[in-house]
Design goal:
Spore Coat Polysaccharide Biosynthesis Protein SpsA, Chain A; 48% helix
């Protein structure tokens, strides 16, 4: 049994595949197997894989079914003590497997770990470190942090997991997702695993014009992310998350992902999981959605309903009371003037806080989806 099973889905990967494979073959740690799932490639991918024929390499060919299915096929064939993920366009540093395996063997208390690395461009030039983009470095039981942000783990290539915990809980990727299958998978892992952090550069995650997260249409990206959020929201364990995490979860869902979907916002606000929040948190979210909807004349009635509901839940909420008063005295224009004044003040305060405490860097334009 090899120490590490390195899993690689590959679909029309000819452009970068040889470099990726080379980064594995020069590892300082030699006890690995590579399982490549050729997911119905129609380019030179099969020819390149044949040129790297080796006793450590197994190639499985299947009809195109998407990244998640390809990863699951690889998981089904893995035999190593540990599972690592190397996508067909990413790169390992020469010390990657050595660093990850040594850490896991030195820390049996951890079931999984993630390391540092770089985002890089099409020519392998580093853009920024993974740790610069993360909201923080969290270890141990990190379910609440992972639920709120896929950037906690960031990318599969920086991770390693004990195969025993994957098999014990039959952890697999959800094929319904085109965008976000990794985030969904790490949420599943985080429910049962303790995570460690490896303070070492182990990888380069390549950003290029054909990354699925860049080329998928905006609506497809939003739809898949919303589907993932609803999956979490409707899980039987959602209520066990802290009130603070659930409040932030609903804020992100309602005011970021669904900001242009009032019907879906209304459905979430009336849902049973939303009712598990304390009344004051529900009131604040009703008010925030109402303020957001007030900006669009077409959703004025929904905005009034939201603001009225916020006042019912928390009559002491001063902000909601002020908006309602402004609407009574001067209608929608007066309320919008008040809201704009609040926003200017809040943005000024936020800038001062960011300067004073630092925080994750914004994503460079090269990392953003096309057309965003």
């Amino acid at each position: 049994m090899p120490a590490v099973s390195v899993l690689m889905p590959a679909y029309n990967a000819a452009r970068y595949l040889a470099k990726t494979l080379d980064s594995l073959f020069v590892q300082t740690f030699a006890d690995w197997e590579l399982i490549v799932v050729d997911d119905g490639s129609t380019d030179a991918t099969p020819d390149i894989l044949r040129s790297y024929a080796d006793s450590n390499v197994r190639v499985i060919r299947q009809a195109n079914g998407g990244e998640a299915r390809a990863r699951n096929t690889a998981l089904d064939h893995a035999t190593g003590e540990f599972i690592a993920f190397l996508d067909s366009d990413d790169l390992y540093t020469p010390n990657a497997l050595q660093e990850m395996v040594a850490f896991m063997r030195a820390h049996p208390e951890f079931d999984a770990a993630f390391a540092d690395g770089y985002f890089c461009d099409e020519n392998d030039r580093p853009l920024m470190r993974l740790s610069e983009h993360r909201p923080g470095i969290y270890t141990g039981r990190i379910l609440e942090q992972v639920v709120l942000s896929g950037s906690v783990i960031t990318v599969p290539v920086c991770t390693i997991v004990r195969r025993a915990i994957i098999e014990r809980h039959h952890l697999r990727f959800d094929p319904q997702f085109v965008i976000g299958p990794d985030w969904d998978f790490w949420i599943r892992v985080a429910r049962v695993a303790n995570f460690g952090y490896i303070d070492a550069i182990t990888c380069l995650y390549r950003v290029h014009q054909t990354n699925i997260t860049r080329t998928s249409g905006r609506q497809r990206r939003v739809d898949d992310l919303v589907r993932g959020r609803l999956k979490v929201m409707n899980a039987d364990w959602f209520v066990d998350l802290s009130a603070a995490t659930r409040r932030q979860f609903f804020f992100d869902l309602l005011l970021e992902l669904l900001k242009d979907a009032p019907d879906q916002q209304a459905h979430i606000l009336d849902s049973a999981p939303f009712q598990t929040l304390p009344p004051s948190d529900r009131a604040a979210l009703w008010r925030q959605v109402g303020v957001d909807r007030l900006r669009q004349a077409a959703t004025y009635d929904f905005a009034v309903r939201c603001l009225a509901r916020a006042q019912q839940l928390d009559p002491a909420d001063r902000k909601g009371r002020l908006v309602m008063t402004a609407m009574r005295l001067g209608g929608r224009p007066a309320a919008l003037t008040l809201i704009r004044a609040w926003q200017l003040a809040r943005h000024a305060i936020d800038r001062i806080r960011r300067v004073s405490r630092g925080g994750p860097k914004s994503v460079p334009s090269a990392l953003r989806p096309l057309g965003s």
